[in-house]
Write a structure and sequence with these properties.
heterodimer, A: 116 residues, mainly beta, 7-stranded mixed sheet, 4-stranded antiparallel sheet, 57% strand, globular, B: 109 residues, 5-stranded antiparallel sheet, 11 strands, 0% helix
Amino acid sequence: GAVVSQHPSRVICKSGTSVKIECRSLDFQATTMFWYRQFPKQSLMLMATSNEGSKATYEQGVEKDKFLINHASLTLSTLTVTSAHPEDSSFYICSALHSSGANVLTFGAGSRLTVL
Amino acid sequence: EDQVTQSPEALRLQEGESSSLNCSYTVSGLRGLFWYRQDPGKGPEFLFTLYSAGEEKEKERLKATLTKKESFLHITAPKPEDSATYLCAVDNYGQNFVFGPGTRLSVLP
């Protein structure tokens, strides 16, 4: 089945530094990947849609300059949290759209970011 | 605006006590309805896809059904390991899926 790998699973950084999270589709090509943010006991909040070879589409209220998304290949999308601050601490999850006749959305395991 | 709601928000069951979770949707078009299970601190895990009204799918103690306006996830004789948040999502032919808020299920031994 479709597998999405997300790395790192946990990261702790100091305020003001930048952090990169990778999302890879391991056994399929994903032209579209999604990035979500999730707060405790809340549902997924879509941050942006990442399309291979083009600029990401950000949801309203999500800062493009704060959350940089790059989708340079059909199997890799990255989310960079720039100049991170404690309020950016959260659980970030990626997903990839697997189009093999029918659309199926496969998720990564998530990345827990803690900004000190 | 397309919308997906889920009820109840939280559900506590005794082990072996069967129940159902509801997912109601109002969308302009339905290509597929998805159920996911999410454990704390992990990404959602795919369970089922349903494509048309009347369709049913089963996996172990779970059975998902679909009508024109809602889907049910039936849990038969649940075990503590079934405790998780269950998410419903709709592919409305848009660029992304519309997710419901989830139902937090706790199964007590």
